[in-house]
Design goal:
The chain is built from 12 helices and 9 strands. By secondary structure, the protein is α/β, with parallel strands linked by helices.
Length: 309
């Protein structure tokens, strides 16, 4: 492969050749002293620009704090970029992207919309054609893959930082993509085009910088044993402690709430059940999730005084 989806393509994923029911992800080792989270993100943005100078950088912002922190890093890196928003017909996701649009206007960042009639996208079966091409189990991610197909230049998606917890008798990394979210990487591989599917996984040092934060000490020291303890508020606290500047959203949305309500009303269901029955269930039947998910992260991601088993 002549392009890098992460720095030196350190992040690898896939099902085992001799065991198709096991999905494995691996991350590369830290090779230099680790800076602050913000400084590592700025270094990542600069490296992305240096290696892709012929392509205009397009940051895909989804409305959340991850997108905003990614944009802050690119601003501080002093590299040119444009922001892209996916806008649903009839303003079905207007509330979700409002905060990021406001951020762009305050910072004088150029942005553009790519419009999608999301109801037609699902009811016409277009979502299923996209999902089949990339073997994707999520109807929501199918819309993101459609968006990527429309974007020219170098698309960059934010993703999120990962956090370690001690689960059972082994480390488990919250937020590290499994088979479902590795679909973003498959998009670029299948289409043989450069892009950054998960900015906060770009370098081992950027990943590990979050492990060094004081607010992550309980996670690193095996005092947190449940995924539920890593909340949205803790993620926001990690960003701020790491040198970013964000305010947690009063209401954390995904952009699909109004669409889900639409189908619940049509089918007399509650809590988004109708949407999942209509659109998610068929994809999960076509692409069965693996039985086992293994994550391998090098020991040198952890502070030196931590004993890693």
């Amino acid at each position: 492969m002549s392009f890098e989806l992460t720095q030196d393509n350190h992040f690898q994923f896939g099902r085992l050749e001799d065991d198709q029911n096991t999905f494995v992800v691996t991350c590369g080792s830290v090779t230099r002293p680790i800076a602050t989270c913000f400084d590592e993100a700025v270094l990542a943005a600069q490296d992305i620009y240096k290696k892709n100078r012929t392509l205009p950088i397009k940051l895909l912002m989804s409305g959340g704090v991850d997108s905003e922190c990614m944009a802050q890093a690119f601003l501080a890196a002093h590299v040119p970029f444009t922001v892209v928003f996916m806008r649903f017909k009839d303003n079905l996701n207007a509330f979700d992207i409002f905060s990021n649009v406001q951020f762009c206007e305050e910072k004088n960042i150029s942005y553009e919309y790519i419009d999608l009639d999301v109801v037609d996208f699902f009811e016409s079966g277009k979502y299923k054609a996209i999902a089949e091409k990339y073997e994707c189990q999520s109807p929501q991610i199918a819309t993101h893959l459609w968006l990527l197909e429309q974007v020219q230049g170098l698309p960059v998606l934010g993703g999120n930082p990962i956090a370690p917890i001690w689960k059972g008798d082994r480390w488990f990394y919250i937020g590290l993509p499994g088979e479902l979210h590795s679909t973003y990487f498959k998009f670029f591989l299948i289409n043989e085009r450069p892009g950054i599917p998960w900015f906060f996984l770009y370098s081992p040092e950027l990943i590990a910088s979050f492990f060094l934060l004081p607010c992550m000490s309980d996670f690193v020291n095996k005092k947190v044993l449940s995924e539920a303890d890593y909340s949205y508020q803790k993620k926001c606290a990690a960003y701020n402690e790491g040198g970013f500047s964000i305010t947690p959203r009063q209401n954390k949305f995904t952009g699909f709430e109004l669409l889900r309500q639409h189908y619940d009303q049509l089918d007399n269901k509650t809590y988004g059940q109708a949407f999942d029955i209509r659109f998610r269930a068929p994809l999960e039947e076509m692409f069965i999730f693996p039985e086992t998910y293994l994550q391998f992260v090098p020991k040198n991601y952890f502070p030196e005084n931590i004993k890693v088993e």
